[in-house]
Amino acid sequence: MKLSDIKTPAYVIDERKLRENLEILKEVQDRSGAKILLAQKAYSVYQTYPLIADYLAGATASGLFEAKLAHEEMRSKNDPTKKIENHVFEPAFESDEMSELCDICDHIVFNSINQLETHRSIWESAAEAGKVSVGLRINPEYSTQDDHEIYDPCSAGSRLGIRLSEMPEELPGGVEGIHFHTLCEQGFEPLEETFRAVEEKFAPYLAQIKWINLGGGHHITREGYNIGGLISLVKYIRERYAADVYLEPGEAIALDAGYLVTTIMDIVNTERMPVLILDTSAACHMPDVLEMPYRPPLKDSEEPGELEYTYRLSSRTCLAGDIIGDYSFMNQKHIGDRLVFEDMAIYSMVKNNTFNGMPLPDIDIMHDNGTVDVLKRFGYENFKERL
Known about the structure:
The protein is built from 13 helices and 16 strands. The strands form 2 sheets. Strands 1, 10, 11, 12, 13, 14, 15 and 16 form an 8-stranded mixed β-sheet that branches. The chain has an 8-stranded parallel barrel with strand order 2-3-4-5-6-7-8-9, surrounded by 5 helices. The chain is α/β, with parallel strands linked by helices. The chain folds into 2 domains: 3-12 and 258-344 and 352-385, Lyase, Ornithine Decarboxylase, Chain A, domain 1; 33-254, Alanine racemase (TIM Barrel).
């Protein structure tokens, strides 16, 4: 990647790494019979959807707008006739959205019996005509996460999914599938544990379904993930319950497949350490850094104190806490130097904002030969139109 040619700040999608992730996921599909969907809430660079559609079964949405995006843009580049599935789940749907969702989606998943019945007058006719398949999201009440309760759908008081105590004796009329989503950046073992809990608690319903969606949070493309275990579990479910099996990872599709390139604008000396003022921002351009919180990986750097020069990386916003983290480098840094944050394709572009009137970074794509093209450039009008 020719850093000097890039206007910063810029997200850069690594096309080669994206394809490598997709090849792994396609292998899982082919060997297990699962259908894998892109969870757009993590990654929505629709200019790459034709590539993704070459490998995967489709996409899943968290609401009408994402569902429309997949409906419009998710087309296979190599096989325009390929059937691409479009799924949607939302804790609550607006009544005026339901007709359009029934027209553009293959699966609609409801978060409660009340939501199912509230919209029955609209979805039922579409289901009877074979246009849409309806499912319910369940809450296994089986948590596999120790930290970050904000990302745990099985935490106490969670609003996500129907608990066993709230389920009727039989699935309501028209319901063909069960959905659960409980993981966050996890391996195979937590999925297996969760499914065994679902199998134990919800066994009568599994005998009634045509499909089951195991949700997202699966780091399938991460080194060391137990792909063989996942394939065996999917095969077991398909054979035991004669049901289609869906997986909807978001991060696994674009894991390590993007960068955020930034320029050092100024250096401020403090009593602790020098602070690099960057043209990017944690609060605006990578909000998970503050929400999780976590320290994003940075190319050619180490933990503070491990290399000769240690700096704090911050932003040009007025937020005192807009701090990305502390890093050390072999070489002293200067105004105008470029830095490259890694693993920046996921939960960055989909969550960024224009606080302080900060410009949104460009969205670029790096091809196999290292050349970079601009997919999208933002300006003042994008800031103004949001207000």
